[in-house]
Amino acid sequence: MTAAHFDLTGKVAIVTGGNGGIGLGMALGLAQAGAAVAIVGRNEAKSMAAITELRAGGARAISVTTDVTDKTAVAAMVARTLGELGRIDILVNNAGINIRKPPHALELAEWESVMKTNLTSAFLCSQAVHPAMKQAGGGKIINIGSMMSIFGASFAPAYAASKGGIVQFTRSCAVAWAADNIQANAVLPGWIDTDLTKRAREQIDGLHDKVLARTPAARWGVTADFAGIAVFLASPASDFVTGTAIPVDGGFSIMG
Ligand code: NDP
């Protein structure tokens, strides 16, 4: 195994939710390995800051402001990426939200909003990039799940359902598109210090210390922890890895 196995020079990646948090951590890793990156999010100012950071590291990067729950907008985002960057080799389906309520209190509109953002968006984006990847002779799809792809969550039923669904959607694409040389894998983050969990920490007493106590690595994850797994799953190093769901959680999921 040499550095060539992890070289993404000439490759193009789309990262949804790549303007902050885990998505930006992955985008920075992909860019450092040589990929050009399209950052996809709704907040234009955040996306501009992200592409400035990527470009400062020498990467080719564009921002494509898009709501990934909107099929027409997703098609336009893929067309613009192809138009400006020329190809699509890597798709990271990372955009996500959570609404913290137990099942008996969750409104239908809230359920649908979480499912659309976390799961339907992965379907829309994967379907939209499939023709370009197939035509190019292959591709890599990386879907972001969660510990709640494995465990239930009394306070996040739609989130857990969407993240469980991500794993089965990943496996389905892995099987359906294996003949097109497309590998699809899921990454399951543990507790990571981002805007998403900042809100949870404000709402749940003692969450910070509970996570430390339960995590063998004895720390919260940071967004830089996702650079390496992104490069691995996007590169030739993982060409015989497909349909998996890999925890990146400091050991959280192995604790009884
Ligand atoms: P952040 O809140 O920092 O990032 C979420 C990203 O999703 C933002 O960049 C946001 O961009 C984007 N996004 C949300 N809705 C849409 C939409 N409709 N269209 C386009 N982009 C959208 O959270 P994290 O980095 O923590 O989360 C990233 C992923 O990791 C999520 O899927 C989350 O569920 C998952 N995860 C996170 C964990 C953690 O501990 N942090 C644990 C397990 C999983 P914008 O603001 O521009 O819309």
Automatic annotation (TrEMBL):
InterPro entries: KR_dom, NAD(P)-bd_dom_sf, SDR_fam
Keywords: Oxidoreductase
Family: Belongs to the short-chain dehydrogenases/reductases (SDR) family.
Name of this protein: 2-deoxy-D-gluconate 3-dehydrogenase
Taxonomic superkingdom: Bacteria
Native source organism of the sequence: Bradyrhizobium lablabi
UniProt GO MF annotations: oxidoreductase activity, acting on the CH-OH group of donors, NAD or NADP as acceptor
Transmembrane regions listed in the UniProt entry: none
Domain Ketoreductase intervals: 11-180
